[in-house]
Amino acid sequence: MNSRKIQDRRSSRFILSIVLLLTLAPVWLVGCAVPHIPSRIVYEDPVNYVRLEEDPDVLAEWPPSHHAHPFLIEPGTVRTILTGMKVQEHRTALQRWFLGESPLVSAFTDEEITLLSAQLAGALAEATYHERVTFYLSQPQTFARRIITTGGLYLHGTELHFLLGNWRIIYGIPAYGMIYDRRYPMRPTAAKGFDLLFHPADAVIPLRNSLIDGIFANAKDELVIDLAKLEPSDSVTFLSERSKAFPLGAQLIP
Question: What is the number of other CB atoms lying within 10 angstroms of the CB of residue 79?
Fold first, then answer.
């Protein structure tokens, strides 16, 4: 009889272990699949934020990978850049043959540009060489749904690298598990179906992309803009080791 009770207890423990394993497995898998990215908040309100996060592609021992941060740029210049960004629905060659080119749409609304202009400029001035600036914009629709626009940027010399992770994507908050959109703003939450463009086009530095990126409409979600080709009146200043002795906002001559 005692042996029967022991066997029953072991069976119960085994079943309980299986239940716990099945319950916690999704959480463990998510935790292992996507590592935590250290970050610090520059601006945050209930639905938006701008923050600095460590860039895993920057190696301390390899100076060519370092970003040109901190970087001083006028909020007005950031406004000009954001205003010049356009989004176009991605169409294949066959779709363009029958439907033509899709219309250009502003990547950001006036309200979003007003918010981001000052906050992105401030974040770039505060960033270090191994950090990138990320942003998250959302419009709540229901308790579990929101429209999001997210991305990030960094600078190498006078080249501004700007990536749009999500653009006006409807994101459904999962019933359980990790909420990806707020934690990882540079990662897409759905297949991208847009191309990111900039005006004036001659300020854009072309990028090389793979055939796979072209097929999945990921080839034109990042822009590299040469700030030296923007209007001369736009003020851009570096804060490097050589320039820290100069007063804030002083124009440096290479």
Answer: 20
